[in-house]
Amino acid sequence: MPWIIIAAIATASSVTILALVNVYLYSRYKEPFMKLWAVAWSILISRYIFLILSVLWPDCLVCKQINYLCIIASAVILLAGTRNFIGRPVAHGFTITGAAIALWTVGVLSSGLPVIYAIVPIFAFLAFTYIRIGIDVLKQAEPGEIASRVVGWLFITWGIHQADYPLLRPIEWFAPWGFLFGSIVATSIAIGMILIYFERTQRGLQEKETRHLNLIESSHNWIWEVDANARYTFVSPQVKELLGYAPEEVIGKTPFDLMPEGEAARIGAIFAGISAKREPFHRLENTNRHRDGRLVVLETSGVPYFDGQGNFLGYRGMDQDITERKQAETRREVSREVLQVLNEPGDLKESVQGIIELLRVKLDFAAVGIRLQEGEDYPYWAQSGFPQAMLVQENALVERSADGGVCRDQDGKVRLECTCGLVISGRVPLGHPNVTPGGSFWTNDSFQLLDLPRDQDPRHNPRNVCMHRDYASIALLPIRYKDKIVGLIQCNDHRKERFTPESLQHLEGIAAYVGAALMRKWSEEERVTLENQLQQAQRMESIGRLAGGVAHDFNNMLGVIIGHAGLALMDTTPADPIQVHLQEISKAAERSADLTRQLLAFARKQAIKPQVLDLNETISGMLKMLQRLIGEEIHLCWQPGSRIWPVKMDRSQIDQIMANLCVNARDAIVNVGTITIKTGTVTIDETYRLPHHQAVPGEYVWISVSDDGEGMDGETLGHIFEPFFTTKGIGAGTGLGLATIYGIVTQNHGFIEVTSEPGQGATFTIHIPRYVGADCAGELQGQASEPPRGQETVLLVEDEPAILQMTTMLLKNLGYAVLTAGSPNEAIRIAEQRPGGIDLLMTDVVMPEMNGRELASVLGVGQPHLKCLFMSGYTADIIAHHGVIDDGLYFIQKPFSLPVLAVKLREVLEQV
To answer: Where are the alpha helices (DSSP H) in 219-260?
Structure first.
């Protein structure tokens, strides 16, 4: 009997420990099955207490009843807790069976029946219960769960032990060992169940952590944790994708270490205020510096976390990359600001410069520039960020030959070098990975182009200067005007991966805005230019009318002076003192006649005789005269172009142009200097006309006269072609030189370009249309040393008596027989009186009764072989109205000198 008490006490002690352990675990983790286990083991403790009492007081029926009821109750509750633990509900039938057995036990013991009738059902029920629990535990055991399998078999073993209890319990010496075995199994089961719980809890934590890590890794956001000092203690792998750093490189740093200096100060101040209040924050935008140097915009959210005692430990949160979104917002903002700048009144170049600064700063480029067409080249019109040495080296795109000439392709178009030339010429290979559908060229790693084989490089004469300046990302976007490419926008950056299809599309939109602004500006300039040209033409027309109105009378008077001076000179000897005065009178009259011709040339009303000329030959023949004109202290440099086209114009007009330009260049040079004359050819198209509204498309031969003199400012350039405008001192110039050149060039359907800067000299470039047609021999302009003479009969018709008298004297002096008439009717009467006796009709064009052409027609009826020479002091438009300056007719402009008249007479009389 003492052995049973000792065994019961030992078992009760172990069960008590198990109950206390479960009570502690339940109080800590609040798991329902732990509560049931604690109750079950507590009831089992009571069972052993009442077992000991029933052994000590065998007659105590209540102790026996409670002992057996505790066995049943603990078994039912233990089963319920275990089923709850493994996630299965307790069957209602089992609970009912337990309750029935409990009632049966109470009845058996109360009626005094043998105890065996109560023990057998109780322990059969326990055996079934524990074996059932063991089987359930084994079924739900996960692979690798050793504790679950051990506990399952322990439950089955305990169930078998309960089944043999009615048989072995009566054996007195075995009873203590049975109690000890049962207590060991029960204790092992309880400990095993706790081990299973912790094993599953640990596995659950691992699964949760794995799931958590998987969620972190699958997220596009960067998950992080910082301590109270804002130093990273955890960083998810996404930081590599966002900022280019490995997680271990970021641990120990603060967020501000990854930001630009200014941004770090701003965000640091904001975070300090938030952290001081231990507040969560949401969508805090901040700019970070990527490892490769580019800027990344993040949107940060975080919440504070604390330990069990409420002490602040730091923040946990995430960062979302919103760079693309911010870039899109920036692009929209930049587009809006660009449109605002372009629509503001003011100088277009200043507006474009503002746009360049806007693009460089807002879009964070190292350098931005705009090339626009200037002549046939495309220099930088505005830029920001490019080194000056590179601008000088890269400014021109036109390919030059060894002698400095412009290189052209088979279509006659200029050849443009490098990638910029490829884009501007519109020859980018569409479909190429570095070419957009809009014709832009771009690369995020330009250094790869350095290794591109020549046969695979679409560029003409690649210079690769940008690459050698370490510009990794390059974008070249064409600027279009009326479907023509007139320039480009160039964006360069030292960092790689700066461009995306979206950003390129945006930049192409900016280029379109600039093109539209240029269109408006050039259209406005064209309108203003046309208005100015109209006003200039009206001024010229007014002066032309004035010149034409006085030309006839003035030229008649000059003709009288020149004629009589010439006759007087012939009647005197060089030793005669009066000859000096006569020569001065003659020179003054000739200069006055030249002044009249200049006025008429300026007004485009002088009579001219165009002929096919080679400008190189014409100018070469003038070089000695030009050198004498400018003086020995000025060096004259002649650089003729090769194989230039012919032109058709009056040779004297070329002389006039070159003399005026060289004299002006000489006057602009202080002391010594150089005047350079060049010739060449150019093809003008609609694109070239954009900044040169006065040009008409076609092929031209050009002459340029450059000097290294003082140059002119913009205000002076705006007035140089106005008549009587001069920068020379009083008496030093008439102000008609450049106006005359303007008139001559315009009369020949050409145009003039002038470039000059103060202190940088000036360049005048004359463009004359190419002549296409059969070559025409030029008129003989030379003069013999002695005026040629003749003996033919000349009918002279002139309504001005002084001119009639003077011309008669000139003709007689030359040996001709002269018949004079003061009117057309008088001339007709004289001709009728001498049929066939007149060799030449020399008549004025404009006369009161009929004009000279009509008179010639009347006289020609009776004398079909009569030769005619027309003369006039009127302007070209008036005599053209009378049909005199048509091809095939002979004309001499008043006033004329004796030698000129003599040559012209022989030219007319000797015609076949």
So the answer is: 238-243, 247-250
